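Tokens for chain A. Residues wanted.
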């Protein structure tokens, strides 16, 4: 099984290049987040002649900071699409998530904060196959844990840029698939 540890290392290395101060999460209040990035499906291309297991990822969140770094989040995330073809048949697999969880904002010294997330999500996996003039599509929903880590950097008193890594899994026809994403986004405090 492939690991996505290299994605986490890359996200942390890139975040170290940023020089902006951290987003203060110590006060209570409403938070809105929007992020985009790249996704990666692990083991999705095994045995397939032509395959692209990476795609674009999008994440939106509405959260409430309780204070002292604890945040309750509701989110929607699109993990993009895996695309493959073999023997004249093309296939696409995509996952969309809706869920809730908690985020912990931990000061790293100075103005930088590490963000750790843990939640649960309804994962809707959609599979579409086409070939020989026929297209078939099916979907299945499952519930799974979703977790991640990131770093937040303040760009204004109520705005921060966050680099984050997310990981989860979904089931389809009894098989479990893992996927992850690296995103960069803007978080606003109200």
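Reply:
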């Amino acid at each position: 099984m492939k690991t996505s540890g290299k994605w986490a290392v890359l996200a942390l290395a890139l975040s170290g290049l940023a020089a902006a101060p951290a987003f203060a999460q110590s006060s209570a209040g409403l938070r809105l987040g929007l992020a985009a990035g790249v996704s990666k499906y692990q083991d999705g291309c095994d045995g397939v002649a032509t395959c692209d297991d990476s795609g674009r990822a999008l994440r939106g969140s509405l959260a409430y900071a309780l204070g002292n770094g604890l945040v309750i989040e509701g989110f929607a995330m699109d993990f993009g699409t895996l695309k493959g073809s073999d023997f004249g048949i093309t296939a696409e697999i995509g996952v969309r998530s809706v869920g809730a969880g908690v985020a912990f904002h931990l000061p790293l010294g100075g103005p930088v904060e590490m963000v750790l997330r843990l939640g649960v999500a309804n994962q809707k996996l959609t599979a579409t196959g086409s070939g020989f003039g026929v297209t078939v599509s099916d979907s299945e929903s499952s519930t799974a844990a979703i977790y991640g880590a990131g770093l937040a950097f303040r760009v204004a008193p109520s705005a921060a840029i966050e680099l984050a890594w997310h990981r989860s899994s979904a089931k389809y026809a009894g098989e479990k698939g893992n996927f992850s994403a690296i995103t960069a986004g803007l978080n606003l405090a109200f």
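Residues 5-189 form a domain with the Porin fold (CATH 2.40.160.20). The chain has a mean pLDDT of 84.
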